[in-house]
Automatic annotation (TrEMBL):
Domain LapB rubredoxin metal binding: 349-375
Gene3D superfamilies associated with the record: Tetratricopeptide repeat domain
Summary of the function given for this chain in its UniProt record: Modulates cellular lipopolysaccharide (LPS) levels by regulating LpxC, which is involved in lipid A biosynthesis. May act by modulating the proteolytic activity of FtsH towards LpxC. May also coordinate assembly of proteins involved in LPS synthesis at the plasma membrane.
Taxonomic lineage from the root: Bacteria, Pseudomonadati, Pseudomonadota, Betaproteobacteria, Burkholderiales
Family: Belongs to the LapB family.
Locations listed in the record: Cell inner membrane
Membrane topology of the entry: Single-pass membrane protein
UniProt-listed HAMAP family: LPS_assembly_LapB (MF_00994)
The protein, known as: Lipopolysaccharide assembly protein B
Transmembrane segments: 6-23
NCBIfam families linked to this entry: PRK11788.1-3
Alphabetical list of InterPro entries matching this protein: CellSynth/LPSAsmb/PSIAsmb, LapB, Rubredoxin_2, TPR-like_helical_dom_sf, TPR_rpt
Gene that this sequence comes from: lapB
Segments in the Cytoplasmic topological domain: 24-382
Length: 382
């Protein structure tokens, strides 16, 4: 049978026309879908910048519906849910991302990190721990270890916290010695509470090894020795603390005086306390000196000069313990000065709308520009 080339000449233009028409229809659909998604995305971004989170979430949901394969929209939506406290919805969004087979390694790590943050914010610490541990060896490794450190501290898992901080320090992330020392101090206190004196001593030794200059291990070692009945050992620890960190020594000044009396080292303790007071004056040291002298703080000769130099309510209260027959005009003036200083911050007006404080009354708040937002009474009267 002879082939008619006339049909070929007719079919070629026809096929070309059909193909062109089909491509135009597909192109219009693609353009329509791609234009709808960015519009919804930019609308959500604009609403977010205007702090309209509810409407922004609706816009992002619309954008995801138009283009469900866009990971950035999912991340934006999940982060918004987390910021609003809708942790369950945030978890669903990020778990949906992790369930996608076409997700790249970088985006998968990012979704895993976002999921761990969701669990952390929701207070699901066990699931957050697992999610953060899954990020080991990824670009989020350091960030996840820091988050785990905070998680262990919040859940009071001090041994895991110490191990995590030590691992971070080995990687060069930063210096965590002082933080590790606190972890071991907490473990020492737990051991001491169980009656495990050896365990407490071992933990304190590790704390001092982690941060030799930290004051807390010395303070706790002295307290442990004092509770064990060894006043001399307690004084040795606290004397070292006094020389290393005079400010922290205030915390055990009263116990120091008691241990000195028990060890018959009153004169040495008095000299040490006088020296400490000269470096960092404080009522705790004056109380310890009064304790050594076996007299109330109110009768101490050093109380009035201290109150004149450092007017505080605590000092004024101690001075008020003096018998009325021993009062002088100088004592009364010192008390008045201390009370006036303490009352000054409370003799202010505070805006009920924004919290702006001022010494004089304003009808219009200088902070938020609201009218009649200042209650016409001082803070101490509210």
């Amino acid at each position: 049978m002879d082939f008619d080339f006339q049909w070929v000449l007719i079919a070629l233009p026809l096929a070309f026309g059909v193909g062109w028409l089909a491509s135009r229809l597909d192109l219009r659909q693609v353009r329509r879908e791609s234009s709808n998604s960015p519009k919804a995305y930019y609308k959500g971004l604009n609403l977010l910048l205007n702090e309209q989170q509810d409407k922004a979430i609706d816009a992002f949901i619309e954008a995801v519906q138009h283009d469900p394969d866009t990971t950035e929209l999912h991340f934006a939506l999940g982060n918004l849910f987390r910021r609003r406290g809708e942790f369950e919805r945030a978890v669903r969004v990020h778990q949906h991302l992790l369930g996608r087979a076409d997700l790249g390694a970088t985006e998968r790590d990012r979704a895993q990190h976002a999921l761990a943050q969701d669990f952390m914010k929701a207070g699901l610490f066990d699931r957050a721990e697992q999610a953060y541990k899954a990020l080991a060896g990824t670009p989020f490794d350091t960030e996840s270890r820091l988050a785990l450190l905070n998680l262990y501290e919040r859940s009071r898992d001090w041994r895991a916290a110490a191990d995590t901080a030590a691992a971070l320090e080995k990687t060069g992330t930063g210096a965590f010695g002082t933080r590790i020392a606190h972890h071991w101090c907490e473990l020492a206190m737990e051991a001491d509470g169980r009656g495990d004196a050896a365990g407490a001593a071992s933990a304190l030794a590790k704390a001092r090894e982690a941060a030799p200059q930290a004051p807390r291990p010395l303070l706790l070692a002295g307290q442990q020795a004092w509770r064990a009945g060894s006043a001399t050992a307690a004084l040795q620890h606290w004397n070292e603390l006094r020389l290393r960190d005079p400010a922290s020594f205030h915390l055990v000044a009263a116990d120091y005086a008691s241990a000195a009396i028990a060890a018959d080292q009153v004169e040495a303790a008095r000299a040490a306390l006088d020296k400490a007071y000269a470096q960092t004056p404080g009522l705790d040291l004056l109380r310890a000196l009064a304790q050594l002298a076996q007299q109330p703080l109110g009768s101490s000769a050093g109380l009035l000069p201290h109150l004149q130099a450092h007017p505080t309510l605590s000092g004024a209260q101690a001075l008020l313990e003096r018998p009325a027959s021993d009062w002088t005009e100088t004592d009364a003036a010192a008390v008045r000065t201390a009370v006036a200083k303490a009352a000054r911050p409370m003799q202010r007006y505070r805006c009920a709308a924004c919290g702006f404080e001022a010494q004089r009354y304003f009808w219009q708040c200088p902070g938020c520009l609201g009218w009649d937002s200042f209650p016409p009474r001082h803070l101490e009267e509210l």
